[in-house]
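Quick check before the chapter quiz. The format below is the same one you will see on the exam, so make sure you can read both the input and the output lines.
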Amino acid sequence: MSSRKAATARAVRRPASSAKPKAAVKAVAVKPKVVASNGVSAEAIRLAADIEREFAKHDDALTPEAMQTLMSALCRVYAAQVENGASHTPIPEGQIVSPTGVMLTASGLLRAANLAVFELGMWQSWTGK
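Here is the expected output.
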């Protein structure tokens, strides 16, 4: 095994709590490109800003139950929009979300639905989505 592969394998096995980030990345609120067209959308944008602001102060800004409730609702909304022909991504272009954050979230979503990455790959090849 090459030294690079060995280092990668060690990094993968290392618990997240002991991993040291290379550089701190602060979340930057991205102004929506389109003005919210209804009250719920405007409220969701305000809520997201409030969550980001509180999360910058402390990691436990949301309880696990609150985060799960929001994530569940957003998954259902996003899936319905895509099934109805929408082609936007769940995160806007220019939004600061680390690749690690995306992978952790995707992995958690798959685990919550009792799915494997293989099944995701098969579904993507069948549907083209």
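If your answer matched, good. The radius of gyration is 18 Å.
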